[in-house]
Write a structure and sequence with these properties.
alpha/beta, 14 strands, single chain, eight-stranded mixed β-sheet
Length: 435
Amino acid sequence: MNIRQIALSILDEYEAGGKYINLSLASHKADNLTREERAQLTALLYTAVERKLTYDYYISALSGRSQEDINPHTRNILRLGLCQLLDMTSMPDFAAVNETVKLARSKGESAFVNGILRCAARERDSLPMPPEEKNYKRYLSVKYSFPLGIVKHFDALYGRENAEKILEFYNTEKYTDITINTTKISVAEYLDMLEKSGVLALEYADFPHSIRIDSSVNPERLPGFSDGLFFVQDRASAVSSVALSPISDGVTVDVCSAPGGKSFAAAILSGDSGRIYSFDLHESKLSLIESGAKRLGLGSISACERDALTPDESLLGKADRVICDVPCSGLGVLGKKPDLRYKDLAALTSLPPLQLDILTASAGYLKSGGELLYSTCTLNPAENECVVEKFLENNSDFALADFTVGSLNSKDGMLYMLPHIHKTDGFFMAKIIKK
């Protein structure tokens, strides 16, 4: 099978069963692809999924057919073709069309796909869109390929202009943030390594351990990966690691830790001293924490399977720091997880009770004067400040504490990292102390 055939197979599987694209990609590791071919396959799939609402609108407009009247398999062929014509333009139009047509199963399907793609190639600069003046939310939904419910959510929170900036950021900003393992190398030394390797990176004033590479890169191909000189961590998450004051020779509990980034950051910031208990509900994910800690050479981390709702009684009242990064709707990471944008928004109402229960259980680990960092990667007040405020209403022996990270200042102990302003994942954090 070639790259397009594999991509089509994965898209068909994704549409039929709702399986995450990254899981489908992992199941195709046995395919005989070079590293470059796998990178091309990944880019093709993620772009096709990210832009599928836009492509579907074009398909219907150009064909005069509703989505229900187009076979799902045919629609996936067209999505791949439009992806190559409009967003991954490394090959001539005629080649992109011809190679895509080869995926068709019949003469009729070939003719249909050929006609739509050739028309799209001719009209690429004037492809139809919903009238903006009639319904701007519908227009934004199609333009940026986000379900109408998400557009309405951001519009209600931030207004039209900011909502569009958030959607645009998710679709256009491709970068890789990494946190430097300063137990092994300084940031300046690692930046010098990158420069000598021809990789341009920038240091952050707000978080001196973090640097940004202005492209999506495979971290395993960066210098020093196997030596544990860094790990991938978005700047927003890195900021939250600093917001929770590092402590040497103390006890830290990370209640929902996989894949381990916040535990790694806590270990590095404390000089790999003390003890960090990295818990996660899913035993299958513990290997990510263990292998990451081993690669980074961090000996203070212990990974263990545990439901955040049932704390380890031996640690109750003994932790100096608690990291409580709870499961959330993920509205802050839609740029990195394009298939997440199409999930049911029921999570916006179903998750807060669980998040409150996890926060309440996790707070039991704290000793007097200890600090807890509650965080999510979502932009939904019901999962963020509303959960924190409800917890404080029910627990008078806890209070919010303001914090500063570089030029970033919390407000009443809480801070949002907004994609269109901070150029990071959407992120919320709140620092809570036990009196």
